[in-house]
Design brief:
alpha/beta, Rossmann fold, five-stranded parallel β-sheet, 5 strands
Length: 278
Amino acid sequence: MEGTTTATDEISKLEEIALEIRRTSLRTIHRAGSGHPGGSLSSADIVTDLFFGGVLKYDPKNPNDPDRDRFLLSKGHASGLYFTTLAKAGFFPEKELESYRKINSPLFLSGHAHPKTPGVEIASGSLGQGLSVAHGIALGARLDKRNYKVYVILGDGELQEGQIWEAAMSAAKFKSTNLIAIVDYNKVCQDNITKDLKDLEPLEDKWRAFGWDTYRIDGHNMQEIHQTLKIPPHPDKPRVIIADTIKGKGVSFMEGQTGWHGVAPSDEDLAKALKELQ
């Protein structure tokens, strides 16, 4: 029973952290007057478990440790979430979030992540590139004889890019078992529903056909996220975790809405959102 209680307490703590990160992300985006709240909220539970659930191996005091696990946010417009998480993890003081999306931000806290920011591995911008870069970094670990893992979060919209599937083929070909892709499958793009642009289903079958060790989970069930991310690597295949999520998760008037893809909340919207995120 003690082991079960400890595990339950750990999940509850992670859920609390995810709520805190959601609140801080929205405050950060609101303060900047621009940003992407919808995709930040949909990814929050996944990112929380990666950084605070004992999944990622990292040292915020030594962000360039050659043996660190690498985390890449391919859907880089969710930088409000990314920087909030890095601050919470100790890479820089939370006060620095006040410079988010400001000109001459001291830590380069821009609309898309920049590697001059402590804890950020690559610049993001044009979507669809993250998996290719992640695979390259994963191959680098093999060449350098290091044991780190590479985690990359993909947006479902960018899965419509051909480069994603080229990288998927390559990673399977080279048996990059230290590569873990996580699809934030919130089913809403910038200005439309994903399936109405290009339907990704059957998504699990596609990844399996490309040679990946494939899982599908509830991307807001912290216990399910935690258990899946802790599964040991496949001996021969890269891994993909398709996480079914809700765009704007946790804020009723943002959930599933294209209008909250790239719009900062007003003062009134923020107050309502923070009240819901208790």
